[in-house]
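User: quick one, sequence for these C-alpha cells?
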C-alpha cells in the first residue's frame, strides 16, 4: 500500500478548528478535516500573491515548504513540513539564485588540471559529469552530486551544475566543456622514414600521438598498429577484452593525413578521434569501432572498403570526399544523414544496412549494386543530373523511401540505367527540379521553346530534332522525316 504521506505537500491545522457555521448566525463550532486546514494554506498563498503577483503555483508551494518546519509528525502518514508563518517576515519570495560559474573557461587542458565551481551565496551546488561531446547539446541534471571541492579533470567531459537554495529553488543550469589533452609517450612509438607509425607498445586509453617522433613528422597511422583483430582465429574475431582493447580516445596531430589498412580495426570501445587532417581512410581503417561517434573526416577524399563500417557515426558531411568504396560505411546503425555534394562514386554495399534517413549526392555518376540495400529508415535522396547508372538492388528493401529529388528533367531521369530489384526506388515520387522546355511555336525553320518561367528560346529546327526531341527522326543526311515536320507545322505554326 502506498504511504499516504507521499501525497501530502504540506501540513496545516485541521483538528478542532473554530469556524462559522451555516446553522447559526451568532455562534462558532469546532470542526476537523481538510476543509479546516485548507483556508490556512489559502490565506498564506494569498499573502504571498499580494507581494508577488506574478508568482506561479509551483513557486508558492516551494516557498511555503522552504519556510515550513518539522513537527515530528509521522512522515509515512502525514508527510512534512508543516505550515509555519513564523519564518516569513513580509511574504516576499526568494529570488532564484544565480547560476554557478566555473574557474576555467571552456577549452583544452592538461590531464590533472583542477577545476572549481564557484558557489552562489546561500546556496548549495550540485553537478553531473557527462562524456565529452563537441555538439551544442543542452544537458540536464538527471542525477546530482553535491559539490564539496575541486574536481580533477582526468578525461574530456561536459560538466553541468546548478545552484540550489534549501533544496527547493534551483538556478538555471550552467554547463562547460573541457577537452583533456594527455601527455604522450614518444618512446613507445615506432616510426619509419616516411612518417608512418608502424608500432605502439603502450596501453594508454586516452592516447595523444605527438607531431614528431624521433624527429620525424607523423604523416600516417600504419597497417594494423592498433588493430584488435584476432589473427589466430580463422574467423578474425575482434578482441573484446576491455583491458587489452584499451583505446578510448585518440588525438592525432594535424600532420597526420592517412589511416592505413586495418589501423584501428576492432577498437570497439574507442569513442573519439580528435584532431588530425584525415585525407584517406584505408581498408577497414576504423571498421568495427562500434562506439566511435566523433571523428572529423570533412577533409577526406576517399573512404576505402569497410573504412568506417560498423561504427557509431551519426552523419557524414564532406565537400571533399569523391569516393566511398565497397561497404565503406556498411552497418552504421546510428548514421542518419549523408551529405556528399562532390562524391562521384558510391561503391558496392557502401551504406548497406545503415539507418540513414536523408541523402544528398549532387554530383555522383554511379551508384553501385547493393549500395543502399536494407536502409530501412531511408526516406529521401537527392541526385544531380550527372547520374548515369544505378546498380542491381541498390535500393533493395528500402520500404520508407518516398521522395527522390532529381536536379534535372524527366527526360534525363528516364535516360538513367536503373538495375533490377529497385522497386522501392521506382515506386518513390520523383521530383524533377528542372522543368523541360515546351514547344511554343514553329515557323518552318526554327523552333521557339518556352520554359517554366515563361522565357523563350529559339533554336534551329535540325538542332531541336537532334538534341531536344530524339523521338523525331533525322536521317543521316540531315533531312527531317516528313511526317515529323508535318506534325510540327500542324500543331505549332
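Assistant:
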Amino acid at each position: 500500500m502506498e504511504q499516504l504521506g507521499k501525497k501530502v505537500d504540506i501540513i496545516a491545522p485541521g483538528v478542532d478548528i473554530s469556524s462559522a457555521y451555516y446553522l447559526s448566525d451568532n455562534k462558532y463550532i469546532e470542526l476537523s478535516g481538510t476543509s479546516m486546514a485548507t483556508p490556512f494554506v489559502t490565506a498564506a498563498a494569498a499573502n504571498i500573491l499580494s507581494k508577488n503577483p506574478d508568482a506561479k503555483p509551483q513557486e508558492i508551494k516551494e516557498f511555503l515548504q522552504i519556510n515550513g518546519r518539522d513537527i515530528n509528525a509521522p512522515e509515512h502518514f502525514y508527510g512534512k513540513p508543516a505550515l509555519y508563518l513564523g519564518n516569513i517576515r513580509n511574504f516576499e519570495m526568494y529570488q532564484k539564485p544565480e547560476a554557478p560559474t566555473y574557474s576555467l573557461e571552456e577549452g583544452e587542458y592538461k590531464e590533472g588540471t583542477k577545476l572549481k565551481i564557484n558557489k552562489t551565496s546561500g546556496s548549495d551546488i550540485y553537478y553531473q559529469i557527462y562524456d565529452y561531446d563537441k555538439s551544442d547539446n543542452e544537458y540536464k541534471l538527471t542525477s546530482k552530486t553535491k559539490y564539496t571541492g575541486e574536481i580533477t579533470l582526468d578525461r574530456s567531459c561536459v560538466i553541468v551544475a546548478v545552484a540550489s537554495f534549501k533544496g527547493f529553488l534551483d538556478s538555471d543550469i550552467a554547463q562547460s566543456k573541457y577537452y583533456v589533452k594527455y601527455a604522450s609517450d614518444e618512446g613507445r612509438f615506432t616510426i619509419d622514414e616516411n612518417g608512418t607509425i608502424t608500432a605502439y607498445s603502450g596501453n594508454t586509453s586516452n592516447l595523444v600521438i605527438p607531431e614528431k617522433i624521433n624527429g620525424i613528422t607523423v604523416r600516417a597511422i600504419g597497417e594494423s598498429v592498433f588493430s584488435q583483430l584476432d589473427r589466430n582465429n580463422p574467423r578474425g574475431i575482434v578482441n573484446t577484452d576491455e583491458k587489452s582493447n584499451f583505446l578510448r580516445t585518440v588525438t592525432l596531430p594535424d600532420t597526420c593525413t592517412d589511416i592505413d589498412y586495418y589501423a584501428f580495426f576492432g577498437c570497439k570501445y574507442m569513442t573519439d578521434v580528435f584532431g588530425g587532417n584525415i585525407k584517406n581512410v584505408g581498408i577497414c581503417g576504423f571498421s568495427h569501432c562500434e562506439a566511435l561517434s566523433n571523428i572529423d573526416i570533412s577533409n577526406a577524399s576517399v573512404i576505402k572498403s569497410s573504412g568506417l563500417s560498423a561504427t557509431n557515426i551519426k552523419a557524414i558531411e564532406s565537400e571533399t570526399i569523391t569516393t566511398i568504396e565497397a561497404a565503406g560505411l556498411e552497418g552504421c546503425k546510428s548514421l542518419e544523414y549523408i551529405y556528399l555534394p562532390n562524391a562521384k562514386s558510391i561503391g558496392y554495399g557502401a551504406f548497406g544496412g545503415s539507418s540513414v534517413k536523408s541523402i544528398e549526392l549532387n554530383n555522383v555518376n554511379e551508384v553501385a549494386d547493393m549500395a543502399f540495400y536494407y536502409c530501412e529508415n531511408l526516406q529521401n535522396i537527392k541526385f544531380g543530373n550527372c547520374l548515369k547508372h544505378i546498380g542491381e538492388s541498390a535500393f533493395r528493401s528500402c520500404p520508407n523511401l518516398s521522395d527522390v529529388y532529381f536536379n534535372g528533367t524527366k527526360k534525363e531521369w528516364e535516360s538513367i540505367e536503373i538495375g533490377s530489384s529497385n522497386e522501392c526506388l521506382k515506386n518513390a515520387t520523383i521530383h524533377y527540379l528542372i522543368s523541360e522546355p515546351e514547344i511554343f511555336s514553329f515557323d518552318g525553320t526554327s523552333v521557339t521553346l518556352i520554359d517554366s518561367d515563361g522565357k523563350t528560346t529559339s533554336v534551329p529546327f535540325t538542332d531541336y530534332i537532334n538534341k531536344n526531341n530524339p523521338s523525331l527522326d533525322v536521317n543521316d543526311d540531315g533531312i527531317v522525316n516528313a511526317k515529323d515536320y508535318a506534325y510540327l507545322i500542324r500543331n505549332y505554326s
